[in-house]
TrEMBL record:
This is Phosphoribosylglycinamide formyltransferase. Signal peptide: none annotated. Residues 4-181 form the Formyl transferase N-terminal domain. The gene is purN. InterPro entries: Formyl_transf_N, Formyl_transf_N_sf, GART.
Length: 195
C-alpha cells in the first residue's frame, strides 16, 4: 500500500477527491497525513476522514529555507512513499525538492509548459487562450518545469471568468491526480525512471 502525504494551502477540493478515492478499500494508496503552510480550510477534509494534519506556517519563519527544514522534519515523522502538492501555493526550497524528488508531485491548473506559476488560470485568460488544461508533474528545481506525468486539455469558453474556468479545470485535475497516484501505487508508473 502506497502511503501519501498531501500538502495544501487552500480549500483542498482536490485533496477531498483524493481522500474520497482512497476511502475505497480497493484503492492502492492511503493518505497518511495532510500538511499546510497556513491554517487551510482543506484541513476539514482530513479531519472528516480522521487523518492527521500538520501546519508549518510560512510567515512564522525567517526564511524559505528555515520553513523548508521544518517541513522536512514533519514529513520525516510520517515517512510517506509519495508527497503530493495539491494546491500548495509556496515554492519549495531546494533542500525539500532534493530530499523528496522524484517522489514529489504537483497538480497545476494549466497545460504545462503553458502558464506555469501561481496564476495559471488567470494567465491563460489574460493571454486570450482558447484552450488551457490541467497537468500533474514531478516537482524539480524550477517553477512547474518538472517531467509531465499526465495532462489534458480544457477549452476556454468566451464567457469564462477565472472562477468558472478554474471550476471546470479542477475536476480534470482531480481525475488526473487520482489516476497518477493509482498508477504510482500499482507500479504502472515508476517515478524513479522518469525523473
Ligand atoms: C488547484 O487548481 C491546483 O492545481 C492549484 O491550486 C488549486 C487548489 O485547489 N495549484 C496551483 O496553482 C499551483 N501552482 P483546491 O485547494 O481546491 O484543491
Amino acid at each position: 500500500m502506497l502511503t501519501v502525504a498531501v500538502l495544501i494551502s487552500g480549500t483542498g477540493s482536490n485533496l477531498r477527491a483524493l481522500l474520497d478515492a482512497a476511502a475505497d478499500p480497493s484503492f492502492p494508496a492511503r493518505i497518511v497525513v495532510v500538511g499546510a503552510d497556513r491554517q487551510a480550510d482543506g484541513f476539514a477534509h482530513a479531519e472528516h476522514y480522521g487523518i492527521p494534519t500538520f501546519m508549518v506556517p510560512f510567515r512564522e519563519f525567517e526564511s524559505r529555507e528555515d520553513w523548508g527544514d521544518e517541513l522536512l522534519a514533519q514529513l520525516d515523522v510520517w515517512q510517506p512513499d509519495l508527497v503530493v502538492l495539491s494546491g500548495l501555493m509556496r515554492l519549495l526550497p531546494a533542500a525539500v525538492v532534493d530530499a523528496w524528488a522524484p517522489r514529489l508531485i504537483n497538480t497545476h491548473p494549466a497545460y504545462l509548459p503553458e502558464f506555469p506559476g501561481a496564476h495559471g488560470v488567470r494567465d491563460a485568460l489574460a493571454a486570450g487562450a482558447t484552450e488551457t488544461g490541467a497537468s500533474v508533474i514531478v516537482v524539480d528545481g524550477g517553477v512547474d518545469t518538472g517531467p509531465i506525468l499526465a495532462q489534458e486539455r480544457v477549452p476556454v469558453l468566451p464567457a469564462d471568468t477565472e472562477h468558472t474556468l478554474h471550476d471546470r479545470i479542477k475536476p480534470v485535475e482531480r481525475r488526473l491526480l487520482i489516476d497518477v497516484v493509482r498508477r504510482v501505487a500499482t507500479g504502472d508508473l515508476d517515478l524513479t525512471a522518469i525523473a
